[in-house]
Amino acid sequence: MRRRGSWLRTALLGAWLVLLGSGVGAVYARHEARKLFVELQSLERSRDELNIDWGRLRIEQGMLATHARVERLATEKLGMHLPAASDVSVVRDDETTVASRE
């Protein structure tokens, strides 16, 4: 009979330890999930800020690359100008030059 009581105590102790381990595991899993959720929110916030910056940069690039601005800078800073009609030469590609390229 004594053996049976000893076995029962061991079984109860084992069940208690399994229950305790399960509880600790559940608490740990919940803690990790919360930590990961906070990290996810932080990364999403960073992504949103980067998307806003990217949009601003694209707008700025569009403004800097407008034809009017490029033409104004070419005229003012580089001294470029449209050539007169008499300075323009039209070069035509006739069939003889096409054949010589092949």
What does this 3D model show about the protein?
It is a single chain. This protein is mostly helical and 102 residues long. It has one domain. The protein is 78% helix and 0% strand.
Count of strand segments: 0
Strand content: under 5%
The tally of structural domains comes to: 1
Mean pLDDT, as a whole number?
89
Order of helices and strands: HHH
**Major sheet, described briefly?**
none
Q: Helix tally? A: 3
What ranges have pLDDT less than 50 throughout 5 or more consecutive residues?
A: none
Work out the radius of gyration.
39 Å
What class would the helix/strand composition place it in? mainly alpha
The shape is rod-shaped
Helix content: over 70%
Through-space gap between termini: 107 Å
Provide a quick synopsis of the model.
The protein is an all-alpha fold. It has helices at 2-64, 67-76, 95-101.
